[in-house]
Amino acid sequence: MQFAFKEEKGAKEIERLTKEAMVNFYQNYLELFFSTGPHRNKLPNPITIEGREHLDRALSQGKGVIVVSAHLNNFTLMVLKLAAEGYRISIAIRDFKDPVQSRIYRGCRRLINLKSILIKPSSHFLRDVLRLLKRNGIICLIADENKRHGGVFVDFFGHLAATATGPAHLAIKTGVPIVPVLMVRDNGNTQRVVVEAPLDFEPSGNRKRDIRMITSGFTKTIESYVRRYPGQWRWDHFRWKTQPGKVNDRKKPYQLRLFNDIEPPD
User: Is 129 exposed, middle or buried (0-12, 13-18, 19+ CB in 10 A)?
Assistant: First the structure.
């Protein structure tokens, strides 16, 4: 947070937001835990959807929709809420390499009835996503993590951040609209799924420039929500870990020369 907000927020505010982020992190998991029990069908009910018309308008084209989201609040419940409202939606996930962890993760998804598509192998992922979109379905891509390989560097909080280009590649390949959708928690512990208008973008014919512009566009939207709800974002994954021309993405943030101004944790 110190790196992201620079002089915008003082030490006390950073400490308060850090505690808020930790509380929100564990609250999200507790909500998912209880959603596996007898309240599974009731949990999404109090969640409201704001801007639903944007999603419905995009779906009216009959091409499907690419939803771009982030690790903001309980994004898993966001997917479950949209599914409960009748939307044909699946979330792209990265499976564990360890077979035991993978089996547990798969069982957890089954318990909460979360429809998902595995990112790897990539050929199967693309096949399954295209099938979903052909049925006018929705693929949800979480696009706010550091991308070690194959991403593009776009601005995020005034710093270069390696960002996944999957949403942009898929949109250019299929002509499917990209719709940013975020999940936020308000005062009184109410939650909202906020649907933004589809990204306004016309292909220029320059693929590299188009990919960068699309990626920059949805990243700016994600940043705007993180700025408004900093205590609800996953700060535990260091977003700026990979930097151009530096082999440093395997090290802890406070070990990087690039970020010497960040104090190491106690």
Answer: buried
Residue 71's alpha-carbon distances to 36, 57, 107, 222, 247, in angstroms, are: 21, 25, 21, 10, 26
- What's the CA dihedral at 82, 60, 139, 162 to 10 degrees? -110
In a structure prediction context, what are the per-residue pLDDT tens digits for the chain, which is 266 residues long? 999 998 899 999 999 999 999 999 999 988 887 777 666 666 666 899 999 999 999 999 999 999 999 999 999 999 999 999 999 999 999 888 888 888 888 888 888 889 999 998 888 999 999 999 999 999 999 999 999 888 999 999 999 999 999 999 999 999 999 999 999 999 877 899 999 999 998 888 899 999 999 999 999 999 999 999 999 999 988 899 999 876 554 544 433 433 333 333 33
Residues 228-246 as b or e (16 or more Cβ within 10 Å = b): ebbbbbbbeebbbbbbeee
How far apart (Å, rounded) are the C-alpha atoms in residues 261 and 175?
43
Which tokens go with 28?
């999200």
Instruction: Read off the tokens for 218.
Output: 């949805």
Cα–Cα dist 39/202, whole Å: 44
